Amino acid sequence: MKIDGSLTDRLTRQIKSVAASQNHGVATICTAPARVDVLGGLSLEAGGVVAQMALPSRAGVALQWRDDGKMIFLGQQRRQNHQPVILPGAAIFPGGGQSGDQSIPPLDDPQVAWTTPLLNVFKSLIDLGMTFPPLQSVNGALGATVVVDSDIRAGSGQAASTAVTSAFLQALSVSRGMVLTAIQKAHIISDAQRASDGNHGHVVDALTVLSAQDGPPAHLLRYSAQPHSLLGQIPLSKDIRILALDTGVTRPTNRNIFAEFHLTGAMGAKIIETIYRDLGQRHNPIHGYLGNVSPELYRRYFRSMLPRRVRGADFLRTYGPLDPTAGEIIGENIYAIRTTLDHLITEYEHAEHFLQAMEELSESPVEPAISAERRLIMQRAGRLMLASHHSYRLRLQLSCPQADWLVDQLSTAGPKTGTYGARITDCGGGGTVAVLMDASDRATDTLLSIMSRYKEEMGMEVDVRQAGASGSAGALI
């Protein structure tokens, strides 16, 4: 099934436009979808449960090997061209029939830094022992032409960089006959992004972009972040929709929110583990994951024992260092332990109950008219999304006026119009709002009205995608 014909056609034309006598073999073209964080978000950093879905917006990569030792990168995103990048293949491929410096040169220029995750993929594969032998040709010096094209807006919170990196790794795997599992690929993609400034890709994001099933029906992916495993895909019943509303606001890249929460969450886990040990608990019952702390126990006992804020130096003196994978505690920095754990633990709880509601809906029969029982389940799921948004907005100050306006308008419209809940997604700060609606014309009319008023109020247009719709298949499907 050709789910991305226009994108594939564009890539084919673009790779042909840079054809040269040095090109070797047929171009390999692979694409990957965007994704929306339906619920769970930052609880990834606490070993929580996360709900994600793929979107029909896609990114693609065309890869063609060269025998002249040149690495040529060309790209565009939402029709905005990236600056072309040309590098010597000797900087990337050790033993690839070339000589010279084998380290990847730093790309400090923001205009060319878009290639950094792709170069990091090469580095990860070489570190794993993958070999890139020279081509059988007169020149025998390995290089490649890489063309990137994406319909996913950068900074939308829809894993734009993850989709590009996934499509690139898949094109590499296909063209060189590499056999890697989905989890191996997800780790390579995540590591390649995290090593790049402004990119905060997560293994779970990569698993969605790689493994999501195409719709219809739409599939809601259920993950456990202990550490990273896909627990199953819940088919959504045809009377409900989950939509991704791109606000047009670019998520800030000057803060790595995921890294901050990972570190502060690890500090909170260390305090709770210390409390257990002081109470005579011989074994660690949370096994390093806040997601294993009962929300009831947390609210009844642990929360009052946690400091609201703690200076890094005071934490280190009292509790000692953390595992290096948690990040570095800066002595003079102030860490909001209690607020962070309030969000992480309740977000895990929200996601778990939301997924249970979606399972109930998928298991019960769909009638021509939505029954009162089904409507109550939808309302419960919607309230969980709204609770998540308010936590982002009030606890963390990680929302933005545009997202708040959309959520407020959708909440005011409410279940009587077929609109049940909405929340800001990803790490907040802008980007995308996820919405739970029924499939009625009334709900569609409500959304269209809100979108029209959004343009008048905010001066921007909302880009809407239905999660799990046709065209959402993962790169491996």
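[next item in queue]
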Amino acid sequence: MGFIKKLGSDTAIYGLSSIIGRFLNYLLVPLYTAKISAASGGYGVITNIYSYTALLLVILTYGMETTLFRFLNKEGENPEKVYPTILTSVGTTALVFVALVLGCLGWIAPAMGYAEHPEYIGVMAIVVGLDAFQAIPFSYLRAKKRPIKFATLKLLFIFLNIGLNLLYFVALPALYPGHESTVGLIYDPSIGYGYAFFLNLVCTGVVTFGFWKEIFGIKWQFDWTLLKRMLGYSWPLLVLGIAGILNQTVDKILFPYIYTASDAHVQLGIYGAAVKIAMIMALITQAFRYAYEPLIFDKSTKEDNNKMQALGMKFFVIFTLAAFLAVMAGIDILKHIISPDYWDGLVVVPIVMIAEIMMGIYFNLSFWYKLTDRTIWGAAISAVGCIMLLLVNFLFVPQYGYMACAWGGVAGYGTAMVVSYLLGQHYMPIKYDIKDIALYVALTAVLYVAGSAFTVESEVIMTIYRSLLLLLFLAVVLKREGLYAKLKARLHRR
């Protein structure tokens, strides 16, 4: 239980920064969807460009986050050289990337369809370069079990970003009429939704200063021989990461190209806004990963590794299924996060959440090739999943639009999940509690169908009804896992 207690406490701290941060960031969704009409396609532009940055971030970190954990705990390696060597490598490649993009902006922006606004591309190139560099100190904080500073810096970005967005999308536009000479010094209404990109750059730059100690307070050492060994470990992770992030973003990157109707950016904006509601699953997966990954790589837990992975998988599935039912119970409330002219996209929410659960399970299944240094298998598995997603998108998006994007995620993650499980049981067998996991999945499916089949016009009644179904799921879990008896005993002692 010590592992579960440690996993739970760290997940709570990492989750606090992720969940509170993402929740606060959700304030930007109603802000953007209220200030940027669906018909304008502006939110589709934001969705599209941020999808590119997510892909570029994976490329510019090239698997070095996981590599940092592996080599800090790998026998025969000098941990004092690992972090500065990785930081130097990633920092250098990020700087080169930014210089190349800014130097070639004249043809990159038109190729992406943003010839009229090349500044969007230039600004986001600098942002993704800084994000890539920051990813290594953030990982170092996790490796050193310093979740408080990690959470503090994450929340600093969120609060600053929200504050500036409220200033530039609400306060200054309201003050501008009649005060053009003064407000106009810091605000230009013609920039419009472009401020979303500029404000991101300001916030990212501020957070960089928070790593003063992790950048200047270390003994700088660069070991080229060590870097070559780490690159040998990380390059399959890069392929894996590219395939993985493509599973999350390629639909939004390709949508304007393969959905040939004139309202492509409008439809993409509706899809992108609806997906935000489903991202509660990504929050749980991310928080779990931040706490779980360092524990699995920790040398001191090596003997109990298989047992921990089996237990971690089971509780991950339980938590994500509960989150799925919770979101569906409150969907009539949560939909107000986005403006009503984006509500047509709500149909994709349960589909995207299922895909996110599969992605989380795949992550939990990924340690067999990371711990056995068979990362090439991870690259291959993720590539297969990505190919499946691409096939679904190219075949069905032209006819079915963003619904095909949502189902493509299920197809891609589902394929990767199944293949990874089968190969993992061959190379590093782990006795997952398949029986209980299957039971909880089946129960969730039955409760979801029950919540969807019975409908009345009252949103209050529907929310209460679906919440009761969620409580039924939790009651079954507490009873079956023996948690109810433990909780009762603890309350009795008090």
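[queue empty]
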